[in-house]
Design brief:
The complex is a heterodimer of chains A (243) and B (169).
Chain A: H1 8-20, E1 36-44, E2 55-62, H2 65-79, E3 87-95, E4 104-113, E5 118-127, H3 130-145, E6 152-160, H4 168-171, H5 203-220
Antiparallel strand pairs in A: 1-2, 1-3, 4-5, 4-6
Chain B: H1 6-29, E1 45-49, E2 58-64, E3 69-74, E4 79-85, E5 89-95, H2 104-114, H3 116-122, H4 124-136, H5 140-168
Antiparallel strand pairs in B: 1-2, 1-5, 2-3, 3-4
Helix pairs in contact in B: 3-4
The chains are: A alpha+beta (243), B alpha+beta (169).
Chain lengths: 243, 169
Amino acid sequence: SARVSSGPWLSLSCSFLAGCGLFEEMSSSTVNHGIHTYDIVGRHIPTEKNPKPQLYKMRIFANDEVMAKSRFFYFLSKLRRVKRANGQVLSIKEVEEKNTSEVKNYGIWLRYNSRSNTTNMYKEFRDVSLNGAVGQLYNQMASLHRARFFSIQIIKTAVVANEEAKRPTSTSSWARVSSSPFSTASSAPLSPSSGLPSLLAAPALTKLLVSFGVLCLGSRMTFLQPGQKKKKKKKKKKKNRSE
Amino acid sequence: SARVSLRLSSRVLWTLAVTQFQRFWAFLTSSSFTMGFDRFVEVGRVASVNYGTDAGKLVVIVDILDSARALVDGPTSGVRRQIVSIRRLNLTPFTVSIAKSVSSKDLLATLNAEQVAQKFAASAAGQRLANQAKRAAMSDFDRFKLTAARKQRSYAVRKEFLKLKKAAK
């Protein structure tokens, strides 16, 4: 499926369409990975034996409704004796993100087919919407694990609070920026990294080095009192073992 | 004798070194160690967008996603709340104290109260942006006027220069 590339193309097209009055809301992310969430309700087609089959609902992440229906039957046929030939989709609705003005940590449990076997994973993404986070997930799985869309099954998604987050991207200082504007711990600055600070530019260091150097020298040196002679270490002569 | 045994004072030196290092470490990890940086990507930082359809507009960083992206909102300049790459932002020296993910309405009130847009317009960066906008909006006649003005200026400068050159001989 065609992926919309980031940046000016998307914003220009959005602004053009907004000017046309076709779009009410611009996308909240400059890079829209294209994933949408769909709630799909489907069932086995009614038969004489079973005129009222059980309804099944699934929440599917896909780029469009066509892909979503396909994935719906893929999962449903794995779970129940329903396949596309004898099933029907009763309702497919897109689920919109309620609040796109707050950044959230999304924890995603997934399972994917690698080349040799299938593995479970738990990943976290920071984004403004679940669609954005799942889009990031698919991109990251493709880049890091060469996993394609069809190899990935999303088991569960959840919004994770900063305190419960497990991954470094969610627990870094920017995630812990305090909500109160007046606390001293607010707005952790990004530029001075919290990693190992540079030890190169400080006058105190020269004092430090000098004192350490003096320490090292001091432990080696012994000052002679007047009248004392330096003790010479006797070297043990190796016995001549040749015969 | 006047000679000092270094073995005795090595303990003193060690404690001195340790206290020095502790103070040095406290300085390195404190918020005042900024390595010369003074504009940070932080909640409340005012920035101007430098690329895209909203180029040239003022926004405020409302939350930070990761090291590359931030959630920005520009109610005074008509920029919708959106995720933007930090590389598309030029940080200004101005900050507003806001809560993380404040509502657009409250942000607008804070910006108007602190007159951020006016302060930015008066600053060097703001004036540079305004001049760039003026130049981009020039008509052919404006460009003619500009060329004429530059010629007049260079003529006046040249005249004075030649006078001074002659006087220096």
